[in-house]
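Workshop exercise sheet. Pairs work together: one partner reads the sequence aloud, the other fills in the structure field after running the prediction. Swap roles for the next sheet.
Pair: D.N. / O.F.
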Amino acid sequence: MISTCVPYAQQIGYHFPYSKLPASYRRLPIIGTVRNPWAYYVSWYAFQMKMKQPNALFMAISKNNTLDFEGTIFNLLNISSDEELFSNVSSLLPQNFQNKGLNLTKQCIKPIQNTGIGFYSFLFNRLYENSADPTVIKMEQLRSGFSEVMSKLRVEPQQKIQNFLDKSPVMNTSEHRAYQGYYSKELNNRIADVDSAVIDNYKYSFN
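Structure field:
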């Protein structure tokens, strides 16, 4: 929507965190999104599974695509506490940004080590760390939330933006059934624990 409708917009990174934003832009409002962690893990897994060549992170935690959803996601959640797994993942990540996928480097992944937090929480914290009062829109309310924010900030052209939000098709989706059906009770509870800050702050629940 931004690249299509806002002629003065500039893209200065791909999945970059706030820490990579040049100082000259930090006076501007920060707008971002958040997602139900249970839904995120299913979507990420399904997206990787449909790729001819899944990314290095997925291949490391799925043991070269030999583990099922539960085994893969348990490993993803254990990156922060399992030294051997962390070392294996880190060794497969690039030194420099590749501008695709999650766009993580060896340096990017270091802050998760020994924290005990979930992988989604790591990604969320990485994006917004040190940003002042960001406006965070729930993914489930993306169109209405974006419309409200664009109107509040008086971003022009308002009508073109609204038409895009009203009429554009769903984009960047992965095919999977309802996320609840992928989880055992054990994995459900594990995410409730390691991603609790995001879940509590944004009032998410498994159902």
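Discussion prompt: Strands lie at 31-34, 135-138. What would you look at next?
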